[in-house]
Automatic annotation (TrEMBL):
Basic residues: compositionally biased ranges: 402-414
Residue stretches spanning the membrane: 21-38, 44-63
Record organism: Streptomyces poriferorum
Keywords: Membrane, Plasmid, Transmembrane, Transmembrane helix
Stated name of the protein: PrgI family protein
Ranges for region Disordered: 388-426
NCBIfam families xref list: SCO6880_fam
Biased composition (Basic and acidic residues): 415-426
Length: 507
């Protein structure tokens, strides 16, 4: 019998200015060292009594860590949050009465926080339909979103599991080139309670007029009992193109947003074969109204029921009412408020976590399944963000990482300190990753953001505790995104492929 394949090798980035110290932390250590040297130079005990306690305090602020962050980072987060609260920048109210654009005659999109700059464009998909593209003019990116289906890994044999994982790895590796215009891929999955509204609507429109009354009653009883207990899962794949990386191709396609959309559509068509090889079936590339619907249902979970009913009705032959989806100008919330540890939007509350540490031991391909376990009291969403690195940058990053590990190891040997098993493992891992890169493997930056949303505030902490317990069962260490819940919501609860910073920073 074939043994299941296990996976490992995730390595955290060092985001510090020097080592694990941020720029502010390094400044605090420098000032502390100067204060410790000052009494020696002055040869004064009174100066020592004053300077030493202050230096110790500064060192604690710089070196002491709580939940993965140093004290100075916590203080910086708190100050930023309090400034936003004082200026009321943490509160968002929809501009329902905003004036219409003089150029288009329509109201502009009204989204909060970092999403305010996003615009949903419409472009031909090359197959006679319309494609919705989320354009970020600040980052210079264009993102297309597909609703996909995947047969899963749980109920297949080991060889097929390994084949599907290898196909997904090959898909990611295909973007690890210097000239690839695609800079980011993100997989987003939602798990939410389904009350069966769409099922009842579809049945009402498709049941035969001469159906036996006993059969109709039995079907109604079955839907009433099984519908509310069902769980709906939605999976999306977003592909992000960088206008800077694809500058020449965009210019050749006509330039501007039209040229960028044409290049993105071309990349999507070229991607179809690789997606099929990875057992991903593209149900549809989302139109502008469908993209807006995914945003709207994330901000207002109660809208999911009404939209599911209206979409089912729109699919009925002869329907002349509203189209499927949501008008992009209505995608945002009516109101939202960012708290220190929660994000309130319309009639719901969301808490977002970042995966701080991936499993240290060998893990099976299905180790993430507990995270999206169905819950009746909450909806969960998870975004896996991948940023492929080109060969040149990958070589630089891995060489830098390996030299840091080797230098730290040499310093410990010179000072007579023992080397821990964790430190040995990090050195071995850095060397193995560099060897894999030299052998033709790709290097990908990756993170995961998880959000849990409830419509009853009293159930929020219970839902958070369940999320953390399931993460622990998967071998993950989560960190609540304190002071940045609105940014976390945009990354974890929406399938818009919000990216990673140049260097991963703490929240």
């Amino acid at each position: 019998m074939t043994q299941p394949i296990t996976y490992s090798g995730w390595q955290s980035e060092n985001s510090g200015f020097i080592g694990r110290l941020s720029g502010a932390g390094f400044a605090l250590v420098a000032v502390a060292c100067a204060l410790l040297l000052l009494p020696v130079n002055l040869a004064s005990w009174s100066a020592a009594a004053l300077c030493v306690p202050v230096a110790v305090l500064l060192l604690l602020l710089a070196l002491g860590r709580v939940s993965g962050l140093s004290a100075d980072e916590w203080i910086l987060l708190a100050v930023r949050h309090q400034i936003a609260v004082a200026r009321k920048q943490n509160v968002f109210v929809s501009g329902a009465l905003a004036p219409r654009s003089s150029r288009t005659g329509q109201q502009p999109m009204d989204l909060p926080g970092t999403l305010a700059r996003i615009r949903i464009l419409e472009a031909p998909d090359g197959l006679g339909g319309a494609l919705g593209i989320a354009h970020d003019p600040v980052a210079g990116t264009y993102t297309a979103v597909a609703r996909v289906s995947f047969p899963g890994l749980a109920l297949i044999d080991t060889e097929k599991q390994a084949a599907r994982v290898a196909a997904w790895a090959a898909l990611l590796r295909s973007f690890c080139t210097e000239d690839s215009p695609v800079v980011r891929l993100a997989v987003h999955q939602r798990c939410l309670p389904d009350d069966g509204a769409a099922l009842r609507s579809w049945t009402a429109h498709h049941i035969a007029a001469d159906a036996p009354p006993a059969a109709v009653n039995a079907l109604s009883d079955l839907m009433e009992g099984a519908g509310p207990a069902a769980t709906a899962r939605e999976t999306y794949l977003s592909i992000t193109l960088s206008a800077a990386r694809a500058r020449l191709a965009i210019k050749g396609a006509g330039g501007g947003q039209v040229g960028a959309a044409a290049v993105l559509v071309r990349e999507l068509h070229a991607l179809s074969g690789a997606l099929s090889t990875a057992s991903l079936q593209v149900v549809e590339w989302l139109s502008p109204r469908k993209v807006a619907q995914t945003v709207r249902t994330a901000f207002d979970p109660d809208a999911h029921v009404s939209l599911a009913t209206s979409n089912a009705a729109a699919q009925t032959p002869g329907w002349h009412g509203t189209e499927e989806g949501v008008d992009p100008s209505l995608a945002g919330p009516a109101a939202a408020e960012t708290g220190w540890g929660t994000y309130r939007h319309d009639g719901a509350w969301t808490v977002t976590y970042q995966v701080r540490t991936w499993p240290q031991a060998q893990a099976y391909a299905t180790f993430l399944q507990p995270l999206l376990r169905p819950r009746r009291n909450a909806r969960r969403s998870m975004s896996m963000v991948y940023e492929p690195l080109g060969p040149r940058r990958a070589r630089q990053e891995l060489a830098k990482e390996k030299s840091k590990r080797s230098s730290a190891r040499y310093l410990r040997a010179k000072t007579g300190r023992d080397e821990s098993e964790d430190e040995r493992r990090e050195v071995t891992l850095a060397r193995s990753q560099d060897a894999a890169r030299a052998a033709g493997q790709g290097v990908v930056r990756m993170t995961a953001v998880l959000s849990v949303t409830v419509t009853d505030l009293e159930e929020l902490e219970t839902a958070c505790a369940e999320m953390q317990a399931d993460a622990a069962a998967a071998g993950l260490e989560l960190r609540r995104m304190w002071g940045a819940q609105d940014v976390g919501f945009a990354a974890g609860a929406l399938p818009l492929g919000q990216g990673l910073p140049d260097r991963r920073v703490g929240f």
